[in-house]
Give the backbone structure.
Amino acid sequence: MKLEGIKVVDLSMFLPGPHFTMMMSDHGADVIRVESFSGEPVRQVGWMQDGESIWFRNTHRGKRSLRLNLKDPRGKELLLRLVKNADVFVEGFRPGVIERLGLGYDVLKTHAPQLVYCSLSAFGQAGRYRDRPAHNVAVEALLGVMSFNVGHDGKPTLVGMPSADMCGSLTAFAGVLMALVRQRTTGQGDFLDISMHDALLAWTANYQGPVFAARQAHDVKFERNWGGQAFYNMYETSDGKWIVLGGIELHFCENFLRKSDRLDLLDLCRNPPGRTQVPVIEFLRDFFQAKTQAEALEWLSDVDCCYAPLRTLLEGTLDPNTTEREMLLQDAMGRDHLGIPIKYASEPGQVDFRVPALGEHSGQIARELGYNDAEIRGLIADNVI
């Protein structure tokens, strides 16, 4: 696999860090999850199955768990031995915490100059917000992307997906892989300061038009991405379900309007999002309101345009296409797992369905670092591992 031989030491928690290090594990990296004595918090969060948190299963498969007391000098010494031959170190504490533990980049690089050290936090290691505690929704709110979710009542609502978390995860993943490419040619590591706030802002490239051009906030109801364009919108059907149209290219609009015998509206589809789209929106609203969702899907089945039924995540996940794409997998016990989204033709990733128990590999890892059995028994007895 692509990352075979790469050793990752992961001290991050919750979603962003564990998610991207799991992707590294899926592609062959040896990911050692360093947990406190109380364990990764999400071991006990959310829906459980067979005594395991599904969230934890979806972010920690294939990893090894080292339960380690970093406040004990012997725990710190063990970690320094661990990183000496590691390639990647990931931490997700608030800025300053890792330095107070004596494990900042300046310390670790003296022991392991090859180390790619990734600090992943809400607002990064510098800037006026660096010390603010925040999870996903606070980052979305402060940046302004939550203001896009304004409903018909004019009030905002929470964003359903953890977009700041996942942008942070994927940005860190890309950054670490780039640093590993350079490490392979120079032998030197690097420090990555990854901010969820920065990452999410970078993903607003196609939303920045009014901000950059006119220093103007979005008027959401007239923006293309939020319903201001007739053929980029959602419409309720007569049975209380919904159809989503998702393509504004003129040939898609023409195909739909030709079948519905309303080509007189085609010129309006050339207009930018906003009030001039209202007649087309009103036609489509009435059109779909006269049909059930099933009837609308049948009508659309031979029309070359972008559309989809609005589904629940249950319906979307259990779509046969998900299995065909190997994105829904089952282990020997019949439990569901998410698949691998990066699909190589050569050396594809492989899912290791095993989820580590807290501290399951502590003795094994200590032995690999040169501790003998007596020393390991002592570390366990003294609650170091």
